[in-house]
Model the fold of this input.
Amino acid sequence: MSRVLIVESEPGLGEVWQRYLEAEHVTVSLAHGQSEAVTQLLLNEFDVIVLDLFLAEGSALAVSDFASYRQPGAQVIVVSGEPVFADGSIFRHCGNARAMLRSDAPVEDLAAMVEHFAMH
Done:
């Protein structure tokens, strides 16, 4: 069973993703900011991290950096509601990022990416 950490400041959105992934038999932890994410990374192992680029509390890049140190095998899917890094430069700033997805993309697309990256 895949283990996923969702780091999303918008509680409603994070919970929708969590419920959908859990229905797909994925073990999901949900953090709403940098502090909660770091705690989760200290306590649990994850295959995939779904990381909102613009957190209300803390820095997504700090979470990514900590994850690359603490759990180098975790694959990061960066999500954003803003049209940033369209040039692909997120992959230079976030070395463990494997994909970028708009936060308003269908949850099925996110689930497919999670499944794909969890197998690698």
Summary: The radius of gyration is 13 Å. The domain at 3-118 is CATH 3.40.50.2300 (Rossmann fold). The chain is about 40% helix and 20% strand. The first helix runs from residue 11 to 23.
